[in-house]
Amino acid sequence: MHRVVCPGSFDPVTNGHLDIISRASGLYDEVIVAVLINVTKRSLFTVDERVEMLGEVTAHYGNVTIDRFHGLLVDFCAANGIAAVIKGLRAVTDFEYEMQMAQMNYRMAKVETLFMTTNPLYSYLSSSLVKEITRYGGDVGGLVPDAVLTRLRARLAEEQAGQQAGD
Ligand code: PNS
After folding, report:
1. CB of 53 sitting under 6 A from ligand 1
2. How far apart (Å, rounded) are the C-alpha atoms in residues 45 and 34?
3. What does the buried/exposed string (b/e) look like for 23-40 if buried means 16 or more CB atoms within 10 Å of the residue's CB?
4. In a 3-state reduction of DSSP, which class is residue 66?
5. In what order do the strands lie in the sheet with 3-8?
6. Which of 25, 28, 84, 85 has the fewest CB atoms inside 10 Å of its own CB, making it the most exposed?
7. pLDDT by residue (tens digit) across 51-86?
8. Partners of 3 in the beta sheet?
9. How many angstroms does the Cα of residue 117 sit away from the middle of ligand 1?
10. H-type helices in 58-166, by residue range?
11. Looking at residue 99, what is its pLDDT?
């Protein structure tokens, strides 16, 4: 059984993430999408919400499961019998940081990292940009799944209503 983990913050999942997950599911027996529980980073969606959205948008893949982890990714891999990590590479700007993590993960636990080149349709896409554009009323249709877009708009509207109430 060849398992691979696709780790990330997924705040929220984009069509770029989904493209990598979908292609990985064609290559591996099992793909585990692992959401990092990061208490120090402020996120728009809770870990539960991110896991739920990922579950909804990957439900049609028979070999994709969603999980969460805290601490080191290599420890999650050891606990789940995972030998490799799969990451999407968008542009050279991703490379330096990804290379550093990949080499460190290999040094720590011999966990391999495989890089998949992002579909050029999504090479400029990030969760941060999606949030920023939606926050200011821009259109990100086609860049995130429709179900995610609905939740994104609702959450940002809640956030703005909360801010106005505090003014
Ligand atoms: O979507 P992101 O935020 O770019 O994902 C980054 C992630 C979760 C893959 C990375 O931060 C990670 O693996 N964090 C777990 C902590 C860890 O193992 N740190 C050491 C890396 S060498």
Report:
1. no
2. 15
3. bbbeebebbbbbbbeeee
4. strand
5. 64-69, 30-36, 3-8, 84-89, 112-117
6. 84
7. 999 999 999 999 999 999 999 999 999 999 999 999
8. 30
9. 18
10. 73-79, 92-109, 127-135, 146-166
11. 97
Longest dimension (CA), the chain: 56
Across residues 132-150, what is the average pLDDT? Answer: 96
Cα separation of 30 and 3, whole Å? 5
C-alpha 36 to ligand 1 mean position (Å):
7
Helix (H) or strand (E) segment spanning residue 82: none
Inter-residue contact 54 to 144 (CB < 8 Å): no
**φ, ψ (nearest 5 deg) of residue 115:** -105, 130
Q: Which residue has the tokens 């050029």?
A: 120
Average pLDDT over residues 89-94: 90
Terminal C-alpha separation, the chain = 56
Contact 82, 44 (CB under 8 A): no
Q: Closest Cα to residue 65, out of 34, 41, 107?
A: 34
User: Residue 88: CB within 6 Å of ligand 1?
Assistant: no
Mean pLDDT of 6-31: 98
Closest atom, ligand 1, to C-alpha of 10: 1
The predicted structure's pLDDT at residue 166: 78
Ligand 1 centroid to residue 119 C-alpha, Å:
22
